[in-house]
Write a structure and sequence with these properties.
The chain is an alpha/beta fold and about 400 residues long. It has 17 helices and 13 strands. One of its GO terms (molecular function) is glycosyltransferase activity.
Amino acid sequence: MASLNPNYPIPPGLHPIPPSQLDLRPDAEVDQTLLNPPPISPHSEKNIWFFWHAGYPSMHPYTQRNIRAWHRRFSPAGWVIRVLDRAPSSPLNIANFLDVADPLTFPAAFCDGTIGGAYAPQHTSDLVRWPLLLRYGGVYADVGLLHIGDLDRLWRTTIGDPASRFEVLSYDGGGSVGRGLANYFLASSRGNALFARCHALLLKLWEGRTSTEGLHASPLLKGVPHLGGHFSIEEEGKPTIGPAEAGRMLTDYIIQGQVMTMVMGLVDEEGGWDGPRYVEEHVFGIEFMVGAQLINELTAWDGQLAFRLMSLKLPKEGEAESEEQKRAREIVETILSKSFGFKLAHGMILKAYKYTLGSLWRENEGSDDVPGTYAHWLRYAMVYWNQDEIPPTVEYKRNEPYKVGPLLREV
């Protein structure tokens, strides 16, 4: 990355990062580091894990920019960023980090490559998250998650601090009682008790299966509310799918989130587990709408509007600000000041909303990185600036359990 000085305004609550605390080498040099990361240290859990089935070189350019930003920001603080894959002969193949033939680590469909369905790549990546964190610790993030806040400071004051009560970091969409951690950002130390149980349940659900279709009805998840329930799906030439069925489809798609909700709401005396108590005492949850989805709320999930606003040029010196420029500015300033990250929406969401900002950045290569635009201002800030404060956690209240009994037994 060239050393830029575009003179973008810094919103309140942020400050510039000293250049000595950033990796500002050219993109090609950063890419070589990402493709050849150092060996895993047994003495550090500062690992940031990503997964892209075909490997980093095959990623879309806008998501490669996401990964480089993580590296530029956090590698000088001791974090190692790795984009794992399943590409043959790749040194970053998941098989070089975990035993892909171990039935206690992966289901048979992962081991033999038979995961199917429209979202096979997403479900493949779902299955590597907990095994990586359980063995090595650190952070797992989706490649579509852009980061804004001070991750290193948050880690050092929670998981990285032996005196802290917090053992898990994530975004939370369930509120103080509902419990709904987002699987696009998960952090813990090695061997975490919550994630170990989540992994065991997910493996059980995958037994004898090649997809997650129908898992919303599993007796092992009985009592956990389905996701969605407020949108329909309309596809050309097909009958409209109503909110109830769309919710079941979404639950199947994000079954990993459903698993976390169940384990957090499980009381298993035989297994020595009290999920509601664990959440109240040990989970640091960042409210997800402000924390990572704010641009969607500010544009009412209108992806074309978000794309148009982010593609606008900032007014030149002496020019009056138009109404659309004002709106785009307010969105960027609000996100940078209030959000810890920015999750680009892809996947099944496109069935409900035909376009998202992420899908349009993918279709219009380079549109997210045009100097002088609001999108470039946002990207610039994510490398060169940091927030003054870390976000608060959701203050969890102990809820009634969804299930009382053994984790893997139907009740």
